[in-house]
TrEMBL record:
All residue ranges annotated as the Glycosyltransferase 2-like domain in the record: 4-122
Pfam families, per the entry: Glycos_transf_2
InterPro entries for the chain: Glyco_trans_2-like (IPR001173), Nucleotide-diphossugar_trans (IPR029044)
Annotated protein name in UniProt: GT2 family glycosyltransferase
Transferase keyword on record: yes
Record GO terms (molecular function): transferase activity
Keywords carried by this UniProt record: Transferase
SUPFAM superfamilies (UniProt xref): Nucleotide-diphospho-sugar transferases (SSF53448)
Organism: Flavobacterium granuli
Domain of life: Bacteria
Length: 307
């Protein structure tokens, strides 16, 4: 069975989210709502949905999401039972009416292939519920590292609500903490997928809301950059050799750029970066790296990427 976890905090769009659950064609799921000590109590609204779908509501007395979103996600998952599959649904996102039906319709193939992570097509909506983006679809089967590269290159988008994953994978890997949860979910899909591809259901939509109240709609760029560095650095340190030469060079340049921004990077880090460039056996890129590095140490940062 499927557990749908809602880490609740903001009331504004919550009714639309609940209505999308009540409207599911297939009701073979249970919802667990973890209230992160919100000042906006949803109890009266939830009364209206009793009997419309199966749910449990729990209010936490201490706000955790303001400190660690990943810990809030994890304690909300802990509210659930022993459902094999889990979805974490944002309190302002909206499921198409056939999301659950589509999941169960594809489940025989998913189980036959040993899949650990499933995702749906998405479309962005604004505060009024109007669509503000194209439909984002994905390869039906995609390796986690291929998704990692596509997302970094801005060839796709991704958010927490559009995924369903195995409880077993979550218990084994957990969710890596990054500031404000940025890139924590992206890392989770690669970790959870393990050696199996991510399975995409492209004919069914989940609607992701972008508003002034959403975290993704009001973002401190410095926090995002710090999270991105930690995220990319993990793959730079642990997965680089599994990437193609082209993608290795792409990651090396990303890490190099982060190094330029961070004056605390030590000599050993620069040496390791140089060795990894050298191992790519690309004389032209190694030469360009030399030029950028020389300019950096001459404090000509403004022209560092003009070569």
């Amino acid at each position: 069975m499927l557990a749908i976890i809602i880490p609740y905090y903001k009331f504004t769009f919550f009714e639309v989210t609940l209505e999308s659950l009540a409207s599911q064609i297939n009701q073979r799921f249970k919802v667990y709502i973890g209230d992160d000590a919100s000042p906006e109590n949803p109890s009266d609204l939830l009364e209206h949905y009793k009997g419309k779908f199966d749910f449990e509501y729990h209010r936490f007395e201490e706000n955790l999401g303001g400190i660690s979103l990943t810990k809030q996600w994890e304690r909300c998952i802990a509210l659930s039972g022993n459902e094999e599959w889990i979805m974490i649904l944002g309190d302002d996102d909206v499921l198409g009416e056939n999301v659950v039906e589509g999941f169960y319709g594809n489940l025989p193939e998913i189980e036959q292939d040993g899949i650990n992570v499933v995702r749906f097509a998405t479309r962005l909506i604004d505060e009024k519920g109007d669509c503000i983006s194209r439909i984002y679809q994905h390869p039906k089967l995609e390796k986690g590292l291929d998704f990692f590269i596509r997302k970094l290159k801005w060839e796709t988008r991704s958010s927490l609500s559009e995924y369903i994953f195995k409880r077993k994978s979550f218990l084994e890997k957990k969710i890596q903490y990054y500031p404000f949860g940025f890139y924590s979910d992206d890392r989770a899909w690669v970790d959870f997928a393990a050696d199996k591809p991510i399975f995409s259901i492209n004919n069914i939509l989940i609607f992701i809301r972008i508003s002034s109240q959403s975290l993704s709609g009001s973002t401190d760029k410095n926090i995002v950059k710090k999270s991105e560095y930690l995220y990319v650095k993990h793959f730079y340190d642990n997965e680089l050799e599994r990437l193609s030469k082209k993608n290795r060079l792409f990651i090396l340049k990303k890490v190099e750029f982060f190094f330029y921004l961070n004056k605390k990077i030590n000599l050993i880090d620069w040496i390791l970066l140089y060795i990894r460039y050298f191992k790519c056996l690309d004389i032209k890129e190694l030469y360009r790296f030399h030029k950028r590095l020389f300019k950096f140490f001459l404090n000509e940062k403004s022209s560092i990427y003009n070569t």
